[in-house]
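Ticket #4471: structure export looks truncated?
Reporter: QA, pipeline team
Priority: medium

Steps to reproduce: submit the single chain below to the structure queue and open the exported record.
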Amino acid sequence: MARSTTGRGEPGGSGTPAALALGRAGVAFTMHPYDHDPAAPSYGLEAAQALGVPPDRVFKTLLVDTGAGLAVGIVPVDRQLDLKAVAAALGAKKVSMADPAAAERSTGYVVGGISPIGQKRPLPTIVDTSALEHETVFVSGGRRGLDLELAPADLVRITSARTATIAR
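Actual output as written to the record:
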């Protein structure tokens, strides 16, 4: 079951670092909690189904290792991260998927609930250009069973991201 709450710069809400960061920044967003099934094979596709939105509007946060540090790629949940494309967008020779434990340590979130917003320390971030085709997109709110809906321009701004075609 999904429920939604609108935020407009009001700190608080879910209490996740992502919601708090959006509140502090005065970014308009809507929190969409839903009942998470730990057995779901894809957390992102589960979110799209639970929230009743097309999967191309729900974006997953994936961490990559550039060899010089971690970075973030944000792509639709029904697509895969193109490692060569994200490496090029980051100016790296190559990247690999980050170790899950390293991703959790770096972001402060658990795998399956990693938000691109409110991470412990800012990381270089690339948002797939397809996000710009939508009025709003959904990203993890910082825990399994919570997505945040916001304008893609706000997502890019709050994460200091660049956009590139990084999904396949």
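Status: closed, not a bug. The export was complete when the record was re-opened. Leaving a note from the reviewer for reference: The beta strands are 5-8, 28-33, 59-65, 70-76, 96-97, 125-128, 137-143, 146-150, 162-164.
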